[in-house]
Amino acid sequence: MDVKGRVALVTGSSRGIGKATALMLAEKGCNVVVNYVKNREKAEMVSEEARRLGVDSMALKADVSKYDEVEKMVEAILSRFGRIDILVNNAGIISRHVNLLEVGEDEWDELIDVNLKGAFNCCKAVVPHMIRQRFGRIVNVSSIAGRAGGVAGAHYAASKAGLIGLTFSLASELARYGITVNAVAPTAVETDMLEALRGSLDWIVSVTPLGRIAKPEEVAHAILFLIENDFITAEVVDVNGGRYPS
Ligand SMILES: NC(=O)c1ccc[n+]([C@@H]2O[C@H](COP(=O)([O-])OP(=O)(O)OC[C@H]3O[C@@H](n4cnc5c(N)ncnc54)[C@H](OP(=O)(O)O)[C@@H]3O)[C@@H](O)[C@H]2O)c1
Predict the structure, then answer these.
(1) Which ligand 1 atom minimizes the distance to the CA of 38?
(2) Which residue of 22, 69, 170, 212 pairs with 181 in a disulfide if CB–CB is 3.0 to 4.6 A?
(3) How far does CA 159 lie from the centroid of its chain?
(4) How far does residue 150's CA lie from ligand 1's centre (Å)?
(5) Is residue 245 part of a domain?
(6) Are 38 and 214 in contact (CB under 8 A)?
């Protein structure tokens, strides 16, 4: 599938992996919607950079954990572009606490609401339009934590494992409409989120055969591959330098 002329919503694309993904799509001629929750200026800059690459782009604020905000964002996209072909559920947060006994109920709820319910909300709002189009590409940004647990805590791992379950289930539910649903599962990536993993970085690198962490563009590249391929669905692509024992 050629992404040229298509319309993509990349959640959480003001920074990090989402930004790299939005710009890689724009480089290929895809119109991109840059979603953010706090950093309007950064999102506008990404959108501006995409327009300089020759595509149409706009930045839209929406907290993915709130369905009414997601619904408004999708309405705004449809009124500007008339369609949504690609949804990358990338927006995510990590938590301050990692030990189960330190994680409060509020912290659990907030993290699950953004990382897992956020993807549900976006799928729920976007999928009816993809069904109408008889075409769609959905990629969920999971994590090695969703495959193997890890240093970011049980709530983070559970949210990312939940995304893998969501991926498998939606892939089989939506295949008949020409919609593919896949996920990527990166190891630590050079983004702002890394700050929370600083103390574990040496260990992560030491157990990674390729001997380093990932660059955002390397994750974006895997996302693009899943979007462009017409016959891969229900797949989780590890982007982890060989770390996961798969
Ligand atoms: N970095 C890693 O080591 C790593 C590894 C594996 C998986 N991942 C996953 O990859 C995804 C992107 O991570 P990243 O490292 O690129 O993170 P990042 O640099 O911290 O960027 C997070 C992005 O998500 C947005 N966001 C946060 N909460 C949101 C909400 N409620 N609604 C809408 N947008 C929201 C942020 O918007 P604002 O700028 O407006 O705050 C920002 O654009 C996440 O799902 C993360 O769990 C990251």
Answers:
(1) 40
(2) 170
(3) 13
(4) 18
(5) no
(6) no
Instruction: Using CB atoms within 10 Å of the CB of residue 133, give its burial: 0 to 12 exposed, 13 to 18 middle, 19+ buried.
Output: middle
pTM recorded for the entire structure: 0.98
Tell me the pLDDT tens digit for each residue of 194-222: 999 888 999 999 999 999 999 999 999 99
DSSP conformational letter for 244: S
* Catalytic-labelled residue, pool 67, 156, 177, 244: 156
Ligand 1 atom with the smallest distance to the CA of 94 is: 47
Active site residue 156: yes
Task: For residue 93, give the CATH number of its domain.
Answer: 3.40.50.720
Q: Is residue 35 part of a domain?
A: yes
Residue 57, helix vs strand vs coil: strand
The amino acid occupying position 38 is: K
Contact 135, 231 (CB under 8 A): no
Residue 41 CA to ligand 1 center (angstroms) comes to 16
Q: How many CA atoms, within 13 angstroms, populate the side-chain half-sphere of residue 240?
A: 23
Which residue's C-alpha comes closest to atom 7 of ligand 1? 143
Query: Do the domain assignments include residue 243?
Result: no
| Beta carbons of 140 and 119 less than 8 angstroms apart | yes
Question: With contact defined as beta carbons under 8 Å apart, do 116 and 142 qualify?
Answer: no
pLDDT digits (tens, 9 = 90+) for 70-128: 999 999 999 999 999 999 999 999 998 889 999 999 999 999 999 999 999 999 999 99
Domain that holds residue 70: 7-237
Backbone angles phi, psi at 61, to 5 degrees: -85, 130
